[in-house]
Design brief:
Oligomer: single chain
InterPro entries: AcTrfase_PglD-like (IPR020019), Hexapep (IPR001451), Hexapep_transf_CS (IPR018357), PglD_N (IPR041561), Trans_hexapeptide_repeat (IPR050179), Trimer_LpxA-like_sf (IPR011004)
GO molecular function, one term: acyltransferase activity
CATH superfamily of the largest domain: Hexapeptide repeat proteins
Strand content: 25-35%
Distance between the termini: 51 Å
Number of helices: 3
Protein name: Acetyltransferase
Strand order of the largest sheet: 6-9-12-15-18-21-23-24
Number of strands: 24
Family: Belongs to the transferase hexapeptide repeat family.
Radius of gyration: 17 Å
Shape: globular
Helix content: 10-25%
Number of domains: 2
CATH class of the largest domain: Mainly Beta
CATH topology of the largest domain: UDP N-Acetylglucosamine Acyltransferase, domain 1
Keywords: Acyltransferase, Repeat, Transferase
Order of helices and strands: EHEEEHEHEEEEEEEEEEEEEEEEEEE
């Protein structure tokens, strides 16, 4: 029986658990710091907290951080990596990933997403439902491309960037580390690191 441990009993976590079941994982268990006050999350049990997962990760065939927040997800991913946890990625059967693209460990690709030729997606990333990452894009670690967001060709995305739902990024744009692109934004110019941009065309909130 294939056993999967998910760290993070969140809304995103439920989506990942459901996705994992569709991908053949037979027993799925959550770890979350709400335990033991909460013992279940949707259809799945919560069996321990984050510290207990670090000591029990060898009991599982796969481990994944199922937290939407980029910085928190990356921090736990690094801890599990340092502890030699069997980190895995999960890709929905309906997602389209080119054989010439690359996907880092600990990443999730949701239904109807697409990652095209010569694109690279880092570790602990989320390419959410219906999002597209076009040819030659380079996504660093811990990036979240939200539902329905679209990256045109050769976009470079720094570590920890969160691209909001329905956002569109023009080709050849560079987005700096830990920036946030608001939902529905249309990005036509480079985005500096740790900057939040919104609107059409996208402008900094500062």
């Amino acid at each position: 029986m294939k056993r999967l441990a998910l760290l993070g009993a969140s809304g995103h976590g439920k989506v990942v658990a459901d996705l994992a079941g569709q991908c053949g994982w037979e027993r799925i268990e959550f770890f979350d710091d709400c335990w033991p006050a909460r013992a279940g999350h949707g259809a799945w049990p919560i069996v321990g907290n984050s510290e207990s997962l670090l000591s029990r990760s060898s009991e599982y065939d796969g481990v994944l951080v199922s937290i939407g927040d980029c910085r928190t997800r990356w921090e736990f991913h690094e801890k599990l990596l340092a502890g030699n946890a069997p980190l895995v990625s999960i890709v929905h059967p309906s997602a389209q990933i080119s054989g010439y693209a690359s996907l880092g460990v600990g990443s999730v690709v949701m239904p109807c997403a697409a990652i095209n030729i010569d694109a690279s997606v880092g570790h602990a990333c989320i390419v959410n439902t219906g999002a597209t990452v076009d040819h030659d894009c380079a996504l660093a670690d811990a990036v979240h491309v939200s539902p329905g967001a679209h990256l045109s060709g050769a976009v470079t995305v720094g570590q920890g960037v969160w691209i909001g739902a329905g956002a569109v990024v023009k080709q050849n744009i560079v987005i700096g580390a830990w920036a946030v692109v608001g939902a529905g934004a249309v990005v036509l110019k480079p985005v500096a690191e740790k900057t939040t941009v919104v609107g059409n065309p996208a402008r900094s909130l500062v």
